[in-house]
Design a protein that fits this description.
mainly alpha; two-stranded antiparallel ribbon; two-stranded antiparallel sheet; 11 helices; 4 strands
């Protein structure tokens, strides 16, 4: 998970969603969640744009995002048509979250640095010393219930994004936009490179970091530097070993 800023309510939200939704609830006080009209769908694109089309829980770009009711409709029907209760999530994460509600960390309340991806395993770990004491149990609960740490399915998703970068199909900047936790993991490894390795390749290094040059391009134009990068990315992170 990464920090997401709270989003301004769309201008048409009250007219299109809140007012008709609450009117319907008043007429159907005992309605089950699946019966509630999905009036939030027309504003889903506003939510997706605010999250940069990245799931608020897995922190990866998703083609099939959904409107997650942070406080679920079954436990808090009065929040079903409230903008401040919506989060953008992949269908899989939305399903895993279910009715755990605020026992799961809120993407609007966490801070960057609470979680990190380890390389090359791509496991997600919480950085306990950065998380307030009163939030640590929720952080553990979130990792467990959403299976964010090392679930096979989510590791496959991370590997897919990471492989595109390693294979030189996309730039580091692109990776950081689509899967920011993986991008940050790569950047941390690059910070450990010996400055002498970079000294004679400053131009290529800048292109690689900022946008224009993929890892494939770096291998072609600055092979010694690329070899150092590859070596750094392969180095195991011993903070945790899966299994």
């Amino acid at each position: 998970m990464i920090r997401n800023e709270r989003l301004p309510e769309p201008a048409s939200f009250d007219e299109e969603v809140r007012s008709p939704g609450n009117a319907w609830l008043a007429q159907h006080p005992d309605a089950q969640p699946e019966a509630m009209p999905a009036l939030w769908r027309p504003v889903a694109h506003h939510l997706a744009a605010g999250f940069k089309n990245r799931c608020g829980y897995s922190a990866m770009w998703t083609r099939r995002g959904t409107v997650d009711h942070y406080l679920s409709r079954s436990t808090h029907p009065e929040k079903a048509y409230e903008w401040d209760n919506y989060r953008f999530a992949s269908g899989e994460m939305n399903s895993r979250k279910g009715t755990w509600d605020d026992r799961v960390l809120d993407p609007f309340e966490i801070e960057d640095g609470w979680f990190e991806i380890l390389l090359p395993s791509l496991e997600l770990v919480m950085i306990e010393e950065r998380i307030p004491i009163n939030q640590r149990e929720r952080a553990r609960f979130t990792l467990k219930k959403l299976r964010l740490q090392d679930d096979d399915a989510i590791l496959e998703q991370r590997q897919s994004w990471y492989d595109e970068f390693l294979n030189g199909e996309v730039t580091l900047s692109w990776l950081a936009r689509k899967a920011p936790l993986i991008g940050r993991a790569v950047q941390r490894r690059l910070e450990d490179l010996d400055p002498a390795t970079i000294a004679d390749e400053q131009t290529h290094w800048r292109w690689f970091l900022e946008e224009d040059l993929t890892l494939k391009g770096l291998r072609r134009r600055a092979p010694r530097l690329a070899e150092a990068v590859d070596t750094a990315l392969r180095r195991p992170d011993r903070r945790r070993a899966r299994g």
